[in-house]
Amino acid sequence: MARTLYDKVWDAHLVRQENDGTGLLYIDRHLVHEVTSPQAFEGLRLANRKPWRVDSILAVPDHNIPTVGRNEGISDPVAKIQLETLDNNCDEFGVTEFKMDDIRQGIVHVIGPEQGATLPGMTVVCGDSHTSTHGAFGALAHGIGTSEVEHVLATQCLIQNKMKNMLVNIEGPVGKGVTAKDIVLRIIGEIGTAGGTGCAIEFAGQGIRDLSIEGRMTVCNMAIEGGARAGMVAVDEKTIEYVKDRPFAPKGDDWDKAVVAWQDLKSDDDAVFDQVVNIDGASIEPQVTWGTSPEMVVGVGDSVPNPATENEAVKRSGMEAALAYMDIVADAPITSINVDKVFIGSCTNSRIEDLRAAAEIAEGKKVAANITLAMVVPGSGLVKQQAEQEGLDKIFLEAGFEWREPGCSMCLAMNADRLEPGERCASTSNRNFEGRQGKGGRTHLVSPAMAAGAAIAGHFVDVREM
Amino acid sequence: MEKFTQHNGLVIPLDRPNVDTDAIIPKQYLKSVKRTGFGPNLFDDWRYLEPGEPDMDHSKRTVNTDFVLNKPEYAGGSILLARENFGCGSSREHAVWALTDYGIRSVIASSFADIFFNNSFKNGLLPIVLKENVIDELFALSAGKELQLTIDLDSQRVVVNGDSSLVYDFDVDEFKKYCLLNGLDDIGLTLQHADDIRAYEKKRKAEAPWLF
Ligand code: SF4
């Protein structure tokens, strides 16, 4: 029977299946960070259990690590305990961890692929919903809760029901200046934040094939914002090229065998999907979210939607509440919205290509006077190093951006990087929920180029015209 | 894990779609390394007027009297009524821990985000999906007044105000129901299949050695 990419990876990892359809799925790679793991390690200890396969685990602190003054240690005492707890747990159980002072430290979803710890066809889990990122390699990757973290630690397996198959096709090429972020925001605008609930989404079509692996990671990263726990892209030459020679990638004979096996990591031509969405690539503009949910998004050339045009009562009141929270008016052109802060970073957009795209816009220009803070937070120590070798840090610093140490930073504002009440931010992260970047803060999601453009202009601009 | 068999409780109506995990428990409380103590900070941004930090005495903060959790008619409620896509956003199980720590035993909504839905079952919190028109009816029944529901997991029924003629059936996955009814730790259940896991590993190592 013809199978989808998701079907194939699922089948290859099924340890057993119960009569009611519940599967026991084997997990190849378990990524761990400080926020969702302490209670899981504690549970393990209380039950006198050990990790089933300690070499499958890779840990890194990222969520509440400071992005400045690291040599002074961590000033927040509560965060400090959590970070120390991760270090201690990893030491006690023998888990490989990139500690805070390791050049390889960074956001968990950036370092996995960077190290080759994420491989095509793997099952990858992490106690973080953006684990969907790793699906860019034709892996089955999804976020799990802390109880499941403990379950995977103890058993190397996850109890799972099979998801449905959804296909999102970006037909034809996208226009110049349109990035992976714009593609995925447009997809979420189309399907809604619950559109992919219960599904694994395969992203396909020329618009996706044309993307680099980093771009595909950006798209899969936000599958969860469309409600899907997992996003996937079929393996091609670019995938194999990206993985080759990375520290955790197979070498020699194993590499040759792996490359042969990976050729099959695509949906069969006649595979049937439960749901198919087609989007014309040429119709995608640079996107800007205007509300408090990623589905509240429009093209940069559009205006803020008017709730009066929405027939459904629950939706309409949701739009009204979002406009009130965001303090913007219906029908205002997107380009008329001024911002206070700019954040370039997060597991969605903090890889080298993202920084290059932002630097290209910022080069030789200055951050606008109304911007109180524009910050660039690389996704990992190695991304930072690479950017510095290319001189990107200088471009940012000369333009008036701050250049920080790697971590999640203002994506979720667990550390000191945050919005104050009422502040408005152009952000390359993935969630614009109320209070996400600080209580009362207002977030507009955009691509790195669009964020840099907003920093220079002081308001949103169409970067294709810069 | 706490068992869930039958529960009788007061409904707290939270009439908004897409309630995300950031709203359920804001990020500053995720720094804790424990599973307990999150109750006072459930819906923190909506519940209190000033921004909250983990080290505060939350009983001294100014409450937002407009927020449903602070209304006297819903005090002591243990069943949360919500709308579509409840629990969207991050995978943080802290969201479930905050609900259970507050005393919520069940959340009723027209749909849930996948990860939240799964996490609930692991903590003795029963998420119940009912049709949108039923949800509308329940919101009408609970608007400004007391609505008591009896939830029976074994028979998969919700009884309204003890009235046996006003009953809604719900679906629940067999395995999840079994674990919840018996308060079972699923790690123990999985480890009963340890031989299967080892056999899988052996076979897989031969086929795909680069994964080990
Ligand atoms: S960067 Fe943001 S979304 Fe990504 S893992 Fe960190 S907190 Fe989560």
UniProtKB/TrEMBL annotation, chain A:
EC identifiers of the protein: 4.2.1.33
Gene3D superfamilies in UniProt: Aconitase, domain 3
Family statement: Belongs to the aconitase/IPM isomerase family. LeuC type 1 subfamily.
Catalytic activity: (2R,3S)-3-isopropylmalate = (2S)-2-isopropylmalate
Matching PANTHER family: 3-ISOPROPYLMALATE DEHYDRATASE (PTHR43822:SF9), HOMOACONITASE, MITOCHONDRIAL-RELATED (PTHR43822)
UniProt-recorded name of the protein: 3-isopropylmalate dehydratase large subunit
Cofactor entry: [4Fe-4S] cluster
Protein's job: Catalyzes the isomerization between 2-isopropylmalate and 3-isopropylmalate, via the formation of 2-isopropylmaleate.
Keywords from the UniProt entry: 4Fe-4S, Amino-acid biosynthesis, Branched-chain amino acid biosynthesis, Iron, Iron-sulfur, Leucine biosynthesis, Lyase, Metal-binding
Pathway recorded for this protein: Amino-acid biosynthesis; L-leucine biosynthesis; L-leucine from 3-methyl-2-oxobutanoate: step 2/4
Alphabetical list of NCBIfam families matching this protein: leuC, PRK05478.1, PRK12466.1
Cofactor note text: Binds 1 [4Fe-4S] cluster per subunit.
Assembly information from the UniProt record: Heterodimer of LeuC and LeuD.
Pfam families per UniProt: Aconitase
InterPro entries, per database record: 3-IsopropMal_deHydase_lsu, Acnase/IPM_dHydase_lsu_aba_1/3, Acoase/IPM_deHydtase_lsu_aba, Aconitase_4Fe-4S_BS, Aconitase_4Fe-4S_dom, IPM_dehydratase_rel_enz, IPMI_cat
Gene: leuC
Binding of [4Fe-4S] cluster, residues: C347, C408, C411
Top EC category: lyase
HAMAP family assigned: LeuC_type1
All copies of domain Aconitase/3-isopropylmalate dehydratase large subunit alpha/beta/alpha, residue ranges: 7-458
GO molecular function: 3-isopropylmalate dehydratase activity; 4 iron, 4 sulfur cluster binding; metal ion binding
GO BP: any one term: L-leucine biosynthetic process
Entry-linked CDD domains: IPMI
UniProtKB/TrEMBL annotation, chain B:
Highest taxon, organism lineage: Bacteria
Residues in Aconitase A/isopropylmalate dehydratase small subunit swivel domain copies: 1-132
A molecular function GO annotation: 3-isopropylmalate dehydratase activity
Listed EC numbers: 4.2.1.33
Record bears the keyword RNA-binding: no
One annotated GO biological process: L-leucine biosynthetic process
GO cellular component: 3-isopropylmalate dehydratase complex
Record InterPro entries: 3-IsopropMal_deHydase_ssu, Aconitase/3IPM_dehydase_swvl, AconitaseA/IPMdHydase_ssu_swvl, IPMI_Swivel, LeuD
Reactions mediated catalytically: (2R,3S)-3-isopropylmalate = (2S)-2-isopropylmalate
Alphabetical list of Pfam families matching this protein: Aconitase_C
Enzyme class, first EC level, given as a word: lyase
Keywords, ordered alphabetically: Amino-acid biosynthesis, Branched-chain amino acid biosynthesis, Leucine biosynthesis, Lyase
Pathway: Amino-acid biosynthesis; L-leucine biosynthesis; L-leucine from 3-methyl-2-oxobutanoate: step 2/4
Subunit structure: Heterodimer of LeuC and LeuD.
Family, similarity comment: Belongs to the LeuD family. LeuD type 1 subfamily.
Primary role: Catalyzes the isomerization between 2-isopropylmalate and 3-isopropylmalate, via the formation of 2-isopropylmaleate.
PANTHER family linked: 3-ISOPROPYLMALATE DEHYDRATASE SMALL SUBUNIT, 3-ISOPROPYLMALATE DEHYDRATASE SMALL SUBUNIT 2-RELATED-RELATED
Entry protein name: 3-isopropylmalate dehydratase small subunit
Species this chain originates from: uncultured Thiotrichaceae bacterium
Gene for this chain: leuD
